[in-house]
Amino acid sequence: MNPKDSKVSEGGLNVTLTIRLLMHGKEVGSIIGKKGETVKKMREESGARINISEGSCPERIVTITGPTDAIFKAFSMIALKFEEDINASMTNSSVTSKPPVTLRLVVPASQCGSLIGKGGSKIKEIRESTGAQVQVAGDMLPNSTERAVTISGTPDAIIQCVKQICVVMLESPPKGATIPYRPKPASAPIIFAGGQVRADTILASAGNHTVLAQPQPAPAFTIQGQYAIPHPDDWMPLLQPVPMNLLFPMIIYFLKSECLGDAMQSMVHA
Questions:
Q1: N or C: which end of the chain has fewer CB within 10 A?
Q2: Overall average pLDDT of the 107-127 stretch
């Protein structure tokens, strides 16, 4: 730990930070634990506030807030839990090489330049001094001004890496307003009147499109946020050609019964 790290640690009681993590659903389930027991233990033992975003999204945001010492403790517990999960998954697996623990931080893009350093000098220094692999995404996360920073390695290496990243964030506050990344829920399927779910809508949400081979019932509503939008087929009549053998008798009947007098009727019969 260099002097800057010592300063952060010693002044931890006076410095409050908020670190955001991006996790998949399975990772979130791991840190929540059965009936929320795991995350409750993490909160109590670390002293940090750990909040998990709501919603049925493929990704969730885990926000850790507190003094620096509390944040480091929370990160340590999360990294050790993920390592425990990796060990458990390898018990009955034929894989011989153990994958590293990986965490994804969400960092304002305006701070990423300081994290990378001139010519990549800072990020190289962090990698060499901690032994962790650090990657800063080139693109911002959708609809935000934040980038993902991926950290991989042993739990100890990850903790040392997080400490150095915290130093950079304290020394280089974000510039301007930050638009936080909010994961989007999976696309809602179209629900039919009979309760069936349209299969091609589910495939479309995964980036695939298909055409159903068999006719389907008319869809009732598309669920969008808090509103139910009627499907166009329910309120836009379809124009279809009418055969002439049906159209001509209809015209004759109309002429005879509504609009024309006896003279026009004789012309039609002629």
A1: C
A2: 95
